[in-house]
Design goal:
- This protein has six helices and no strands.
- By secondary structure, the chain is mostly helical.
- The chain has a single domain, classed as Cytochrome c-like domain (Cytochrome Bc1 Complex, Chain D, domain 2), CATH 1.10.760.10.
Amino acid sequence: MKTAKSIAVVLLLTVSVPAFAQNADEGAKLYKKECRSCHGPTAKGLASYPRLTGQPVEYLIDRLERYRAGEKFGPNTPLMAPRAKKLSDDDIANVVSFIASKSK
């Protein structure tokens, strides 16, 4: 089910970012609360924290789902896992929509 939802999100974001305008607004709120302090106000990264803009939508969804599932990979897992664990599928879609809107 998660995979089907991820594919649907990817397809919708690829075809039409404006279709996600409301979700991007919700994603902006979530990004500001959970992501901004490390990844910067426009998701371009800060210091040693990676840039998110320009990353493929599929990559962002995959990473957030893997962090949420508790999978340990890379040096940022201890920072990302507790934040991602709180995210629903809709939260992930919304925040990725916001990040994708910054890439345009």
